[in-house]
Write a structure and sequence with these properties.
The protein has 501 residues and is of the alpha+beta class. It folds into 3 domains: 162 residues, D-Maltodextrin-Binding Protein, domain 2, CATH 3.40.190; 110 residues, Dipeptide-binding Protein, Domain 1 (Dipeptide-binding Protein, domain 1, Alpha-Beta Complex); 200 residues, Dipeptide-binding Protein, domain 3, CATH 3.10.105.10. 28% of the residues lie in helices and 22% in strands. The strands form 5 sheets. A 7-stranded mixed β-sheet has the order 8-9-10-1-11-19-12. Helix 11 links the parallel strand 15 and strand 16. The relative contact order is 0.19.
């Protein structure tokens, strides 16, 4: 889902810095601790129970693993499965499990844990999020103690990708009720302590299946919502890493310090102005079109974000293989916006609530500029900042809002537009048909074509306003190596992070 929550000029500079750094990268060393800043308090620690990006930022790859996983380059690599194969008809997937793997509570990992995981993932009453990822799975079986077989009802091109997502992590059979508060996985770090609103501490799991990892003894994730406070903590040496969402105006300040550096990588985030399509006036496409025409996306990126971002026109980013540039579907045109409002019966203007999520400065800053631009065409928005827990419960889960803004960071999630109950309250049966076509497509080209048609439909329908795609800018203390620069999925994976000795 949700996610959140940077940048081109600094990215060009960072490429040179990275090339130099990689040429001189010292050999990994063991020991030491790390303190990382994150933006918000997660609503629990189970990524199968909530779509909040703050959960996988901490636990994906660190605490939890699935059969497969994304590496730092976005490639799908082995995790709890060592190998896999697919039948010629693409209906049978066979995975060989890794041997001698233990959970953090000491229990051995085995086929029963995998079977329990996917039974729950396909049970509509289990509370497991994103069950659509597993809809094509007809049966999961274990012919022996080291083999898992997925039998599909139809070809599913996304199966392996979905098995690498945070949604597909595996924990001990029967423990779903405890994972939200006390996560137990197979990852290189075990969950040691959580102080609500303050920090979470992970410690090295000595029985991790890869004895070479992790390098660090422990990692503390500190919850610091204000970006200026995060910067001050980094400058003071209280934290070592800001793993995502460094504001562009802070890049030069950080790079000017002799012991600090920033790096810009790719991400899959769409800063999205969501409109409640089931609620007046947004149930009128002319109003949604007018709002889109009224927003100068380029001015936002150039003025509010120092030019560090890519303007987009649909729910896709240039980091994704099926990206298509639809920024000209409803270009900035305030006169056309006023005309459309008049056609819709709002010649004298209209007013509605625009709610911004409290912990995310990029979204708040973007929302404030958009509010000013909408006022210029006669739309008077009641701007307010909403506490994160309230945003999740009332807006995201309850769809009780007029207009809001958030960064959707989960990759390959355009499927949300096929769900009429999603908080956009948008329904289009053709999108569900196209998703099915994409999954059954005999070639990558046909799969991409289906996704791009979805992108055109939602852009034409002006479901939302997709403003821009930020890159992923991180800031780190000198001497820290192995940090993920790119974010192919929301994660601050510290498995291979180490200090130079």
């Amino acid at each position: 889902m949700l996610r959140h929550s940077v940048w081109l000029l600094s990215g060009i500079l960072a490429l040179g810095l990275l090339a130099s750094a990689f040429a001189q990268t010292p050999a990994p060393s063991r020991g030491g601790t790390l303190v990382v800043a994150i933006s918000a308090d997660p609503p629990g620690w189970d990524p199968t129970a909530s779509t909040s990006q703050e959960i996988p930022r901490v636990v994906y790859g660190n605490v939890f693993e699935g059969l497969v996983r994304f590496d730092r380059h976005g490639e799908i690599v082995p995790a709890l499965a060592t190998t896999w194969s697919v039948s010629s008809d693409n209906l049978t997937w066979t995975f060989t499990l890794r041997e001698d793997v233990s959970f953090h509570d000491g229990t051995p990992f085995g086929v029963d844990d995998v079977l329990a995981k996917f039974e729950r993932a396909r049970d509509p009453d289990s509370g497991h999020v994103n069950q659509q990822y597993y809809a094509a799975i007809e049966d999961v079986s274990a012919p022996d103690a080291s083999t898992i077989v997925f039998t599909l009802s139809q070809p599913n091109r996304s199966l392996l990708y979905n098995l690498a997502r945070p949604d597909s992590i595996i924990y001990p059979a029967g423990s779903a009720g405890t994972q939200r508060a006390q996560p137990v996985g197979t990852g290189p770090f075990r969950f040691a302590r959580y102080v609500e609103g303050s920090e979470v501490r992970l410690e090295r799991f000595e029985d991790y299946w890869n004895p070479e990892l992790p390098y660090l003894e422990s990692v503390t994730f500190r919850i610091i919502g204000d970006p200026n406070t995060r910067l001050a903590a980094l400058q003071a040496g209280d934290i070592d890493l800001i793993g995502a969402a460094v504001p562009p105006e802070q890049v030069q300040l950080i790079d000017a310090a002799p012991d600090l550096k920033t790096y810009a990588g790719t991400a899959t985030t769409e800063i999205t102005v969501a409109m409640n399509n089931a609620r007046p006036p947004f149930d009128d496409i002319r109003v949604r079109q007018a709002i889109t025409h009224a927003i100068d996306k380029h001015a936002i990126v150039e003025g509010a974000f120092f030019g560090q971002g890519t303007v987009i026109g649909t729910h896709m980013t240039p980091a994704e293989p099926y990206y298509i540039d639809l920024t000209d579907t409803y270009p900035y045109d305030p006169e056309r916006a006023r005309a459309l409002l008049a056609e819709a019966g709002y010649a004298e203007g209209l007013s509605f609530d625009f709610e911004l999520p409290e912990p995310y400065p990029f979204e708040r800053r973007t929302g404030e500029v958009i509010a000013q631009q909408l006022r210029e065409v006669g739309i008077d928005v009641n701007l307010s900042v909403v506490e994160w827990g309230t945003w999740i419960q009332r807006i995201f889960l309850g769809a009780d809002y007029d207009m809001t803004i958030i960064g959707h960071s989960e990759p390959r999630d355009i499927n949300i537009y096929a769900n009429p109950d999603y908080y956009y309250q948008y329904g289009n049966l053709r999108i569900a048909e196209l998703l099915a076509e994409a999954e059954a497509a005999p070639s990558a080209a046909e799969e991409i074509a289906a996704y791009q048609e979805i992108a055109r439909i939602i852009a034409d329908d002006a479901v939302n306003v997709w403003v821009f795609s930020p890159a992923n800018t991180v800031a780190a203390r000198e001497g820290l190596y192995g940090v993920w620069i790119d974010q192919p999925t929301p994660a601050i994976d510290v498995t291979e992070v180490y200090w130079a000795r």
